[in-house]
Write a structure and sequence with these properties.
Length: 817
């Protein structure tokens, strides 16, 4: 049987002065050779891994709190705590720590963190304790000065805490407070304020337990009402006794639990409202107060979770139709706070907590609550639902799929969430944004489970697109029945933008489910209606949706786009935007540039064949001319397949400039057998080998003649290619298989999207010039690369400059800007 005496939780204090749970395990002490000393070891009860290995340093201050806590500072700003399940285990480890440090186990702190000065050490040897003045009205000023002078010194602070604890001084001070209040002795009350505040800064658990007891806590709060810096005392006690009422929505039968709840609320109130905002120095001295509240909350959640009758009554009343609205309002607020407290639990206990709530029927209860008219109640229910989705989305998905077998689509929990998102009355749609985030988590395949027997992703997405997607897309479809949005106000546009954001997420992650839905319901055409919205953010959301679809490079989508001419609204939006240099302009150009850069042949042909006349005058970027060039190259390859094979030969062979090297390589080629040729080398097809050399060279001669014509045409756009910002390749090929006249568009490899007025970066004109072709024996064709030909570079630079000088004044202004 597991030894529960040594069962502990390990906590560390984070930067926000909150305790983080590091896990549950069993603690032991023993000599560790690596650390060269007796150490505390905690091994996880789940897998036996080492949660903590801490050497008991003779100079480290260990503090024992609440009989089951040991707290210490491992290093600068790194506090640790062990919370024991049983007091006996805490006492056993505490004795071991005190034995190593040579301390009496009856103390609650072994020593101070800060080293004392030589003067304080001498004082420690000469005076064993601190003598407090008598607790009388006439000595309150002396006592306040003593407390203030002791706080800066760790040693004097420790002595003061021991003296206050041993002499039961707090209760005497509180009796004196009641006398001063009856006599309206304002000066005495101001002194008591300083004294009680100083006792808080002593940071001692034993003193807190006295101050926060039922008979003392209200008087302690009373002392803190009389701040000397304020002209009038603050009515904290009046608020706690008259305004703040403890609503016991479900009767709590355990008196210890009720007392713990009262105490935690009041101590939290003291920390947040009564005590003045601590300085950086004072904040470190209140760490024990933070710990006191934290462990109280952990204890409350545990006690409530163990009370089965309490939770049964809670959920029974939540789901009972006879429960009054006010009562249900109180119940749901309690449940929200209960879930918030659960965030203090460690992961294993939090799993059990949410599993308990699920078994009790929290999700059916939320359905009832979300159907109420009270906005505050629905808001609280949304917060509870967010806790559940954030911690265990699979549990929510499993519930809604089971629910769909019994209920209509209209009353499904997930559809209620969508309807509340759509019907959010907040002008800023704060609630809708929160709900959209929850829906996104639920439909995210990344957090869906896959097992051998079933796949959650397939089942849930099939359910979602069958039962819920029509509810989500309803506002979009209702608002896009014509060429322009039927409602274009700010709030409607915000909502549609949220819906589009979720649909875009689905396009990226849901593959065939969303594809079938978009094509069957013609969603993209409806979405592109929003490009004519007066709100730029909504038009950009519509463009982003289409851009994600194109980015998938899926031919099903491409055929759908071409069949319905869905680039038409994009081109219209581009032309309506005019020469304005804005996000709309950049987004549309980037979309076309993506089609060109990725060489999506079907879309390239569709765009050029249908929209070239509208786009051919756009010259401040080379994107559209590049699309035309891509299109022409595709046509040439289709019309003359033999030239396409010739292109591969030219691509795979580049010869050096040196004539001797060229001759050597030719000789090697003729001396090599076919079987010895490497895979990368280009060879003449066997059918061509049987032909006479004259017949074989004829198509090459025709190709070279057409290439000379194409070279002359391409030189006309070399000046523009320098604006593209992308260096040209060292060689390029152009094919002309049709009877069309010259195409004054730049080479596709030198294109880059731009924008009106945007400066271009210098291109490399020499490297972009067409290389001279070389014909070798046997029909082998290569390219002579001239990367180092300075004369040719100079010649091309002069040609480019002359072209730039020939530009009209309007073009020059765009280039220079």
């Amino acid at each position: 049987m597991t030894d529960t005496r040594r069962r502990v939780k390990v906590y560390t204090l984070n930067e926000d002065r909150q305790w983080d749970d590091r896990g549950t395990g069993h603690v032991s002490s023993g000599y560790v050779e690596r650390l060269r000393g007796t150490s505390l070891l905690v091994r996880a009860e789940s897998d036996g891994s080492l949660l903590l290995e801490s050497k008991i340093n003779p100079n480290t201050a260990y503090q024992k709190q609440q009989d089951t806590l040991i707290v210490w500072c491992e290093a600068e700003n790194y506090d640790l705590a062990l919370s024991f399940q049983e007091k006996a285990g805490c006492d056993e480890i505490w004795e071991k720590i005190c034995q190593v440090q040579g301390k009496d186990p009856s103390v609650e702190i072994t020593q101070d963190v800060v080293d004392e000065s030589e003067e304080e050490r001498f004082e420690d040897m000469s005076s064993p304790g601190l003598e407090l003045p008598p607790c009388e009205l006439s000595r309150l000023e002396d006592l306040a000065e003593l407390v203030a002078s002791s706080l800066p010194s760790p040693l004097r602070r420790e002595k003061l805490a021991l003296a206050v604890e041993n002499e039961n001084y707090i209760r005497k001070l509180l009796e004196l407070f009641r006398v001063c209040e009856d006599l309206e002795n304002r000066e005495g009350l101001h002194h008591l304020y300083e004294i009680i505040k100083g006792i808080f800064l002593l940071n001692r658990t034993a003193l807190f337990e006295v101050m926060f007891s039922d008979e003392c806590i209200m008087d302690v709060i009373g002392c803190l009402e009389f701040d000397p810096a304020l002209p009038q005392p603050r009515p904290h006690r009046e608020f706690l006794t008259k305004t703040a009422r403890f609503k016991e929505v479900i009767p709590i039968s355990d008196p210890e639990l009720r007392q713990k709840i009262h105490q935690t609320y009041r101590v939290q109130y003291i920390q947040d409202m009564v005590l003045p905002t601590p300085s950086v120095f004072e904040e470190n001295m209140l760490s024990t107060l933070h710990s006191f509240i934290f462990f109280n909350k952990v204890e409350i959640v545990g006690m409530l979770q163990d009370d089965e009758k309490f939770l049964t009554d809670l959920f029974a009343q939540l789901t009972d139709e006879a429960t009054e609205d006010d009562k249900r309002h109180e119940l749901v607020n309690f449940l929200k706070e209960f879930c918030a407290f659960s965030q203090t639990l460690q992961p294993q206990n939090r799993d059990a907590f949410f599993k308990t709530l699920s078994n009790m029927g929290i999700l059916p209860a939320l359905e009832v609550i979300l159907g109420m008219d009270d906005v505050q109640v629905r808001g609280a229910a949304t917060d509870i639902f967010s806790y559940l989705v954030e911690y265990n989305p699979s549990m929510v998905r499993e519930f809604v799929m089971q629910e769909s077998q019994q209920n209509d689509d209209d009353i499904l929990l997930i559809n209620l969430i969508i309807e509340h998102m759509i019907c959010d009355t907040d002008p800023e749609l704060g609630g809708a944004v929160q709900l959209m985030g929850l829906l996104r988590t639920l439909v995210d395949p990344e957090n869906m489970l896959a097992t051998a027997n079933k796949t959650e992703k397939t089942e849930f997405l099939s359910f979602f697109y069958k039962h819920c997607m029509h509810v989500l897309s309803a506002p979009l479809l209702a608002n896009t029945t014509e060429d322009k949005p039927s409602k274009d106000d700010f709030q409607t546009s915000q909502l549609l933008a949220l819906i589009l954001e979720l649909l875009t997420f689905c396009v990226e992650h849901h593959t065939y489910h969303i594809k079938n839905y978009i094509i069957n319901k013609d969603i993209l055409r409806r979405v592109l209606v929003l490009t004519s919205s007066q709100h730029a953010f909504l038009a950009l959301c519509a463009l982003r949706f289409m851009r994600r679809i194109i980015g998938l490079k899926d031919e099903f989508y491409n055929r759908y786009i071409m069949r319905n001419f869905l680039f038409e609204p994009v081109v219209k939006a581009f032309l309506n935007n005019g020469s304005r240099y804005n996000l709309m302009n950049s987004a549309i150009i980037e979309m076309f540039e993506y089609v060109r850069g990725e060489d999506i042949k079907s879309l390239t042909a569709h765009i050029v064949e249908n929209y070239w006349k509208a786009l051919e005058d756009v010259s401040y970027v080379q994107t559209f001319k590049g699309l035309k060039l891509r299109y022409e190259q595709q046509r040439e390859r289709q019309d003359n397949p033999k030239l396409d094979s010739m292109r591969s030969i030219l691509r795979n062979h580049r010869f050096r400039r040196d004539a001797r090297t060229l001759e050597d390589e030719e000789e090697m080629w003729f001396n090599t057998d076919e079987d010895d040729l490497e895979e990368a080398e280009a060879v003449v097809p066997p059918s061509d080998k049987m032909k006479p050399e004259q017949d074989l060279m004829e198509p090459i001669s025709k190709f070279m003649e057409r290439k000379k014509v194409k070279d002359c045409e391409e030189k006309e756009v070399l000046g523009k290619s320098a604006l593209s910002g992308r260096p040209n390749p060292s060689f390029k090929l152009s094919f002309s298989g049709s009877t069309k006249s010259s195409l004054s568009s730049p080479p596709s490899a030198s294109l880059n999207p731009g924008s009106p007025g945007s400066p271009g970066s210098p291109g490399s004109g020499a490297r972009g010039s067409p290389p001279a072709p070389v014909t070798t024996k046997g029909g082998l064709v290569g390219l002579v690369d001239y990367p180092d030909d300075d004369d040719e570079e100079d010649e091309e630079d002069e040609d480019s400059d002359s072209k730039e000088d020939a530009l009209p004044p309007s073009k020059k202004s765009k280039v220079s800007s």
